[in-house]
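Comment thread on ticket #2218

A.B. wrote:
> Attaching the input chain for the structure job we discussed in standup.
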Amino acid sequence: MKKVWLDAGHGGTDSGALGNNLREKDITLQLVLHARAYLEHNYLVDVQVTRSTDVFVSLSDRANRANAWGADIFVSMHINAGGGTGFETYRYPSQEGSQSSLLQKELHTEILPTMRKFGTIADRGLKTANYAVLRETNMPAVLTENLFIDTKADAEKLKNATFLREVGEAHARGIAAYLKLPSTEVTFYTIQSGDTFYSIAKKYNITVQQLQDANPGVDPTKLQIGQQIVLPVTTYTVQAGDTFYSIAKKYNITVQQLQDANPSVDPTKLQIGQQIIIPAV
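C.D. wrote:
> Ran it. Output below, let me know if you need it in another format.
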């Protein structure tokens, strides 16, 4: 499963930019929380955040924690200041044509049109900068500057809760497009003799926590044979000409992983329109 690190700029004693009765640290946190919620609800992905509350985290700690966790990408969200207007994105200078550059393009092309649904937004471009969180991270990393807090027209948008939610979700869609994340569907699993949340999670290559989150009303210690629980996995609808080999190749998994996730499916008798489970990897 892909691992995404979301970084809300500033926090705690570091308010970031100030203007029009707004604080950068508050807005960046809202953007990150909206992005995380959208990712976790719509895609098979593991998400961590630098902060989920108003606390201070040093620049080095932000990068070090993402590196230690083994994040696949790092996205830092900020609000600009200095009297300008519009939206811009940054990557580290030496990474032209790199994965960071590709991530930057996906984010930029998803976020800017979303912002423009709320009015005129200047495109300040895809830029480079020697920012610590871009320099010290080991994975593709991008920093977004989401309008100017000290420009009245921009600030009015930043005060709009719907605008912040949609911009946060646009970050999530850009990330999903770059990582080619599989979307989650509601799939049910029927409890068998001997099943535990641990054994089910292991079978479908998800975490026990993800299984618990998808089934908040289920007591893992009191599973009943025949009981149905929700699996936070993606499903695939069989098309003409599909084989287990072609489907596995499409999702970059092995045929054995596909068979293990679909023990009741005969690979030699696939039917058009049949639903099969795609395990997370």
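A.B. wrote:
> Thanks. Noting for the ticket: The chain has two domains: 3-179, 185-278.
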